[in-house]
Amino acid sequence: MAGQNDNWSSRVGFILASMGMAFGAGNIWRFPRVVAANDGGPFLIAFFVATIVWAVPMLMIEMIMGKTTRQGTIGAFKKFVGPRSTWMGAWIGFCCIFIMFYYSVVTGWAIRYLTYGVTGVIRKGIDSEALWKHFTGSPEQTILFHFIAIGIAAFIIIGGVQKGLERANKIIVPSIIVLLAILMVWVLTKPHAVEGLEYLFRPNLAGLLKAKVWLNAFTQAAWSVGAGWGLMLTYAVYMSDRDDIGANSFVIALADAGSSLLAAMGILPLVFAVSPSRDVALQALQSGDTGLTFIYLAKFFPNLPAGSLLAGLFFLALAISALASLLSMVELAVLNLGDFGINRRKAALITAAVAFILGIPSAWNISFQDNQDMVWGVGLLISGIFFAYAVYKNGIDNVRGMINESSWIHVGKWFNWCVIAIPVIFIIIFGWWVFQAVTWYPDSWWNPWKKLSPGTMVLQWSLLIIAVILLNKWFSQKIRLTETDLPDEIKEKN
Predict the structure, then answer these.
(1) CA-wise closest residue to 43 among 193, 224, 189
(2) Which end of the chain, N or C, is surrounded by fewer C-beta atoms within 10 Å?
(3) Residue 201 is inside which H or E element, if any?
(4) What contacts 102, CB < 8 A, 6 or more positions away?
(5) pLDDT tens digits along 184-220
(6) Three-class DSSP category at 486
(7) Where do the structural domains in the chain lie, given as residue ranges?
(8) How far is CA 11 from CA 7, 166, 177, 370, 450, in A?
(9) 439 CB neighbour count, 10 Å cutoff
(10) DSSP secondary structure letter of residue 23
(11) CATH of segment(s) 11-487
């Protein structure tokens, strides 16, 4: 349970922490590849539209729920929506926590490659593919760095909001921006780097007519900003009553989009600058997230002047950005445990221990990590539906009015239409995924034991939904509600 002294010290502190939450590894290792695979310029347009239509309203919803209830996801839904809907908050919390189990592993990868960069292991002539296979095929290494990652996160979280989260992000966020800017400027001085920018911004406006471009844009916006995860709800618990929800939502969402673009403006030119041919560059961009980051970039960096230094800077940016997002996931778990009466230190240690143990399968076997990434990544869109339901339950105009009470930017009727569109967006995205799966795997798309099938998603989602619904009464009885007072119109509905 959040105490009165657990608030951010300033609005700047809150925004920096929120930007740290949003500036995850996906901005650096996923966004450049996705934009390259989806027609460049048209995808950028679609992505910024998705940021406004999905991410900004979702951030507003999470902020108003966290700010008014002063509870974690479970308590927030009990208080804001009603006791019968407590299980929805539990789903959101567990969905994010399940992501934390393997995200800690990914953070460990970044830390390990940081050590490779600064110790000179990543050097000219290195077989980067063999290095990656050796590392991921050595459970003693992947588990060790998974432990280091979750240990660092728990240590920071134990420090509290101001001395832990806020202090860390005041260092992390500016560092990420500076490191990405250095990478971009450095790379753009190299021959053929401009071809990467041309590829990134290529004005193929016909791409705006492709469904794939828009679907990938909305998926990336949901993943990148962290909207619908419950993370912003968690951070909003520590907001002051005067903090501006409308302006903060736009600042955080657009800053995240800007950091993604900055990363792409550094990485795509790098790929083209050091590739022996355009075909090799395109092959690298089509190699997947881990392939591009840990194989091709590790191979390309040493070919540049001071390449080892550049590799160290890149993997430092990746490691600290991953850590910033991991911190928010740990804090979400800690806040929910606090609502059950467990103190911060104990809650952080419990979270770290459970995350380490349940993250071992992902650290041991990358195929398991791939499965969990897909299942719970797409599951976040279901979380978005539950947030939309919270708004429907209390009246969209009522919630919008609550947002406007502390917003310098007036939130108009467009918010209503965005909230209504949230379940529609999920249906379209998931429907598209099923269609693709049926096309790719006609004989196994339904099989729940296949790691990338819709069948495995539905099975795991169903198990979690059944579990939290059955535990709804227990959650509702055990949660300790704060003494904050909700608006009369919300209390009447609940």
Answers:
(1) 224
(2) C
(3) none
(4) 359, 362, 369, 372, 373
(5) 888 888 888 888 888 888 878 888 888 778 878 887 8
(6) coil
(7) 11-487
(8) 10, 11, 19, 37, 46
(9) 9
(10) S
(11) 1.20.1740.10
